[in-house]
Every structure is written in structure tokens, then in C-alpha cells.
Amino acid sequence: MKLQDFKKKYAKSFKREGDIKLSAMWSEPSLISLEDEKELPDGLHAKAKLIGVSPYGYRTFQGGVLLIEGMEKLQTVPEGTKADDSCFIVNCRNVRDLPSSINPFREYDIENCPALENLPAISFDAAYMNIIHCESFKVLGSGTQFKGNLLIKDCPSFSQISHGVEIEGNFTVSSCDDLQKIPEGLKAKSLHMAQCSNLTSLPIDLGKNVADYVIIENCPKIEEMPSAGDWTLLNLQGCTGLKRLPTDIKVRNTSAGRVDLSGCTSLKEIKSNISAPLITFEGCTNLVEISGKISTEELSAKDCKKLEMLPDGLTVGSLLLNGCSSLVTLPGGMNIARKLDLRGTSVRELPRDLNVGWLMDLRSQDGIKIPQEVLDRHEGKIVFPPSYEVLPTLDASAPEPH
């Protein structure tokens, strides 16, 4: 069908402002037959119109949105089809190929298109590109580039990220069970992998090629974080198979800055030197020892039930150890600027050189031994248990026994 005839047949799909909305799922009777159309005409172009320019040079556009929805028999969108602003291809169950000519600048969504296997190998301009519920989508081809953010979600066959793929924005992959590895050379502003049950391998150059932050959450087969970069965030929450970390992890001092290893139940020892505004090891139920140098405003190791050892001279803002039932002793030289929470631990005696700046919570530590020096330094700063024993001050002036 020629474009003019198509426009005449589906006149209500062609909007005055420049949008084209081909939806067989609307209640409009004249559009219902779109469901049976097997082809689109050549030359479809949703054009954006310039409607204003601000004194600062910012341009405002209207229109330019292309919607193709519910066209069950459509297999191919013809080359030359264009959308200036945004394109949405939704519930087109037999679409296998998309043209390289569709390259909007704002948003490009492909959703519930189960026959689609890949994308054209071009540089996509869209600020946001989303591929969702496309069961046959398998690969990002070599040379494919994205100038904005890319989301691939609920695509169970997605298994390959080819060498040379670059994402200038944030790259998110969620619930893609066939993906096993992320290749070396992948570049992105940030990387977010979630619920990818068979992801086993991260690239050694991750620290160099990802600029802003890395989130690898609930990916149970990841065993090693090979490197870390100058990031605002490192989140490995729920990676239950994680066993090894890089030697040094340093996160920028921002309001969002943190290192999150909560729920990493295979970690037994943390030897890494870690610096971040917030560090959490909560629920690392097999963690026995923290031996690396820790620098943070708050370290939370709640419910690390096998934790036995902390580094000597630990100096942090707050230290939350509630639920660490195997922790019996605290190291010497500890300096806690704000809060120390020992509820639910097995600590029975505080070290004489302990310093806490604001609050020491001992509510559940019935019978704990507290040196007089600690009581003197922390008057009004201790939440006491029902009972405790005071250890007398050591007489520093007494001569040493011969």
C-alpha cells in the first residue's frame, strides 16, 4: 500500500502536530484493522516541528513520535521509516527486523516483540533506549553504540555482548538468564546487572572502562569482583557466590557514595582496603574476619553471625555490629567518632583504650565488664545493660613487678 493510501485509510493515526500513532489496541474502530496489516508503507516519518527558541538558545520541539502497537502480522518495518523525537514498537509479535533509519533523539522503546533477535549495528542517538520482554533477543552486535542509557530487561535469550559495544550512558541488564559474561572492552558510564542468574564473569578492565558506578545485584554465580574504579557506588548486594574482591576499593565522597556487600554469604574474609562514605557487610553470614584497612563514616556489619575479628586500630564514624553473635573481643586502638552498637554480640569486656564520640549501645550485653577509664571518658554516652561489672583503673604509676 502506498503512503498516501495508508494515510487515507488510517487518517486518525496521523496527528497534526507530527506524531504517527499506529495502534490496533485503541478502541477507535477505524484502527482495529491495523492488526491485520502485514506491511507498512515506505516513507513513514514522524516529524518534529520547532516551535520555539529560548533566550539561552534552547530549542523546543513538538511532535515527532512514532507508535507501532499491536500489529500482530507485521514482520518488518521498512528501511526509511523515521521518528525524530521518539519511537515505540509494542506488542508486535512477529517483527523480526528493524531498520537503521529509526534513530530518534529522545526515546526508543521496543517491548513485547518476541520474534526480534537483534538490533541494527549503528550508533543510536536516543537518550533512553529500552528493550523489554523480547524473548528471542540475543545479541548486541559488534560496533553498536548508544549515546544515551540502555536497558535490556526480561529478555531470557539475551546471551552476547559483542566486542566494541559502547554505551555513553547507563547500561542496565535485568532478568536475562542466558547472559553468562560481560566482555573486556565494554565501555559505559555506569553498569547495572540485576537478577542475571547465570552471569559468572566480569571483565578485568571493568575499573577502567566504567566511569561512574557499578551495581551487580542478586547474581548468584559471580565469584569475583576483578577490579574497581574511581566510582560513586559499588553495590554487590545479594551476590551469594562472591568470594574474592580487588585489593583496593575506593568510592568517591558523595552523598550517594557507598560499598554494599550485604547478603554476600560466601565471603569469609575481607582483606581489601575499602574507602567509602558508607560500607555495609550486613547479612554476610559466613564472614569471619575483616582484616583490610577500612575508612568510612559508617560501617555496618549487622547479622554477620560468624564474624570474629576486626582490624586493629579501626577508626570509623559509626560501627554497627548488632547481631554479630560470634564476636567475643574488640581490637585495641578503636576510635569511633559517633556510634558503636554492640547489641547481640558476645563481647564481654571492653578494651581500656576504646574511644566513642557520641553513643555506645550495650543494652543486650548483660554482665559486660567496663573499665573505669572507659566510664570516665564516656560519661552520659553509654546505654547500659541491666547489669555490668566495673574494672578498676590500672595504676600507671605503680612500679612494674620484678
Automatic annotation (TrEMBL):
InterPro entries assigned to the protein according to its UniProt record, in alphabetical order: LRR_dom_sf
Origin: domain of life: Bacteria
Record protein name field: Uncharacterized protein
Species: Acetobacter pasteurianus NBRC 3188
